Amino acid sequence: MIRRFQLAGQRAWLRMEGALNAVFGPALNPFYFLGGIAYFLLWVLVASGFYVYFFFDTGVVLGYQSLEDLTRKQPYLGGVLRSLHHYAADGMVLAMTLHLLREFFMDRYRNFRWFSWVTGVPLLWLVYASGIGGYWQVWDRLAQFIAIGTAEWFDYFPIFGEPLVRNFLEDGGVSDRFFSLLAFAHIGIPLLLMVFLWVHTQRITRAVAAPPAPVALGILLALVALSLIKPILSHAAADLGAVPNNLKFDWFYLAVYPLLYIWSPGAVWALTGGFTLLLFLLPWLPPRMHQEPIVEVHLDNCNGCGNCVADCPYAALSLEPRTDGRRFVHEAVLRPDLCASCGVCVGSCPYAMPFRSVGELV
């Protein structure tokens, strides 16, 4: 079942990549830089967030009013940057989701790749938690709905003295100190996210942490244009004496919240927890797709130049002292458990080319 789904997804994905290659060319195909695009959008979030936070006042009333002032009084700077912050967050979720699907369809999460896959799973929850925290700080009707839904979601576990949702059902239930805590979390979680991103790429020797400049510029211009065409505006201020309705949803972050009322908090915990557990276990679940033969080092054609070691993306090759008695100092040695059969080393080797010299290696 999993393999059939993978193969169908792989065929569809390759067709999409081919279509994008025809438009942008392989060097600028955004589907080849999804991880780098997610990184880039994170920096857009950091830059725009710094500006917005400079004018943001933490508090039950002040938070909402300061964002309204920023949006209304600076429509072409503060308002655009607020909208850019929002759309970059959505774009990061989209880029991460596509990146995850690509690696899954291409079966690039098993063997030595398990580390990058498993350390990527917490990134999903960190991004999600940071985004939800950002919505809370606006403290409009949408934030009120999210607060009530989140409280009911966590109240499923009987670990609190009183139900959390009671704090959001009447005026006075939340304080300025609570919003100061939210602001701290909204800054602290992205810092933790950066640490996990660093860990996530440790098994890749030259991880692409940024897309090509034309791709990055195109994405930035598209987000700015979207911010100008459809600026992000707050709902009415939160009113704990009224039920929030007529809400404009951000489905990238809030899709789970309607399920709390269509199903139940327990069912949503089962869905999200089960999906997270499945992602963690995927590298060890059958079936495995066909593994291409790993690289072989032929010492009669190796002079220990080190090109393959320098170019291997997975640090699967190293230079070691010569073992065959020839006059060269080093030889290339393969770690089979790290080899992805990508063929990069074959292309970097001057003696693996179809028209290589047959003379003595020097």
If you had to describe this structure to a student in words, what would you say it looks like?
Keywords: Iron, Iron-sulfur, Membrane, Metal-binding, Transmembrane, Transmembrane helix. Residues 293-322, 330-358 form the 4Fe-4S ferredoxin-type domain. The main subunits of complex b-c1 are: cytochrome b, cytochrome c1 and the Rieske protein. The chain is an all-alpha fold. It has two domains: 33-284, Cytochrome Bc1 Complex, Chain C (Up-down Bundle), CATH 1.20.810; 299-348, 2-Layer Sandwich (Alpha-Beta Plaits), CATH 3.30.70.20. The protein contains 13 helices and two strands, in the order ααααααααααααββα. It has a two-stranded antiparallel sheet. Strand 1 (317-321) and strand 2 (330-334) form a beta hairpin. Helix 4 packs antiparallel against helix 5.
